[in-house]
Each structure stands twice: as structure tokens, then as C-alpha cells.
Amino acid sequence: MAVNPLPDPLAGVAAAPAVDPRAGLFDIVIEFVGVWSEPLRSAFLAAAERIEAVVLNDLPNVAAPSADGSLMTVDDLLIRAELPAMDGVGGALGIAVPTLLRADSLLPVTAQMRFDADDAASLDARCAWDDVVLHEMLHCLGFGTLWAVKGLVAADGGYVGAAGMAAYAAIGGAGPVPVETEGGVGTARLHWSEAVFGAELMTGWIGDESHLSPLTVASLSDLGYGLAPRGAWAVDAAYA
Ligand SMILES: [Ca+2]
Ligand SMILES: [Ca+2]
Ligand SMILES: [Ca+2]
Ligand SMILES: [Zn+2]
What we know:
A hairpin with a 5-residue loop joins β2 (62-65) and β3. This protein has a four-stranded mixed β-sheet with strand order 1-4-6-5. Strands 2-3 form a two-stranded antiparallel sheet. The longest helix has 17 residues, at 38-54. The protein has two domains: 24-141, Elastase, domain 1; 153-240, no CATH class. It has six helices and six strands, in the order βαβββββααααα. The protein is of the alpha/beta class. Bound molecules: calcium ion (3 copies) and zinc ion. Zinc ion binds at residues 135, 139, 190-191. Residues 86-93, 116, 118-119 line the site of one calcium ion.
């Protein structure tokens, strides 16, 4: 039996496992259901990247049902994105909520982002789609949606998470962070106060200008996420 004396230059290269750039780090996976245009879809990938730049720590893998009913391993957050026809431009925009929580940490395993297809097209035309997707994706991580279950809002409605309060103090605030009281179900108690924070991304109304602030990023650590060091946060220039 002859033995090839020459080393195969590809040996080991082909056998190397695919490198997962998010291995050991917090990873958001988007499952797009139905047909998506590239601009609408790319906003999701950009929002996930933006969040992954500040939320670093890996969470335990969890088995969760996939769209076809089979079990799949989720590491760390699976977001199902859907663009159904709803009531046309205006009216209902859609919903973004965690759909399955980890038993111990209560941090989401799966979440759903469902938008009226007509509103998505209209928001994209207004250049507001990127902001809306980032805003709604933060709700999927638990911003607002898990404040009550995590005990982060006081009986009087103020936000009392330690990291959020510290970030508020750093910009001159004192005491609990003001939370929205208007707008009814889906807005009140789930966002920062519009009257106080106006153009911040996580207020209840998104205008032409929306900025991700250190306050919102800090509040993610109150939920239980492990963040990158403050110097690595890619917050908007308005808050730099
Ligand atoms: Ca991970
Ligand atoms: Ca609508
Ligand atoms: Ca606003
Ligand atoms: Zn919201």
C-alpha cells in the first residue's frame, strides 16, 4: 500500500468546524416567516447586531418548539418575524412580545415580532422602519414587557431597576426613572416617559428622530443580561 508522502494542504482546513462568531456569546436568531423584501429583512439583522454589541453574556440553551412543531435548541433568543396583512396603514401596527421564558432567569427563549405588512412598507418609506424594529426587538428581550414580572416598576409606576436609575442619575435625574402613564395597554408602563425623554428610542411614540440611550442599554442589565463594558456601547451620538 502506497503512502502519499506529501501533506495534503487542505487536510484540516476542510475538517475544521464552521466558526460561529457568536459562540459563547449572546446570540439572536431571526426566523423569517413568509416573504420578506431585503430592506425590511435587513433592519432585523441590523437591530440584532446592534443589541449583540451590548448584550454579551451567553444564556443556557433551551429546547423550544420550532414552527413545524419539532423541538429545536435555542441559543440564546429565537425571534419569529411575521408580516401578515392586518388593517392597512395606521390602526394596528403589530405586536412584539416574549413567547417563552426561561424557568429560572425568566429571560426569553422565544419571542414574536408580528407587523402589519402595509405599516411596515409605509414605515420603511418614511425611513422609520429601522428604529421601529430595534424598538420592538428590545421589547422581545423584555424591555417593558418583563418589567412587572421582574419587579422593576414600583407601585407608583416609576422604574426602580438599579442600573437604569444609575444611568438616569448620570444624566441629571433623581430617583425612579419616569415611565409612560399614557397610551393605554401596550404603551403605558412599558416605555420611558415621552414627556421626559421625547426622542429616546424606548419612549412610547416614535418620531422622525429616535436615539438609543445609555439609559435603555443599562436597563437591560436590570433584566438580567450581561452587558459589554460601558466604553463598548454603540449608543447614538445624541447620548455619546
Ligand atoms: Ca449563545
Ligand atoms: Ca395597520
Ligand atoms: Ca418619542
Ligand atoms: Zn414599544
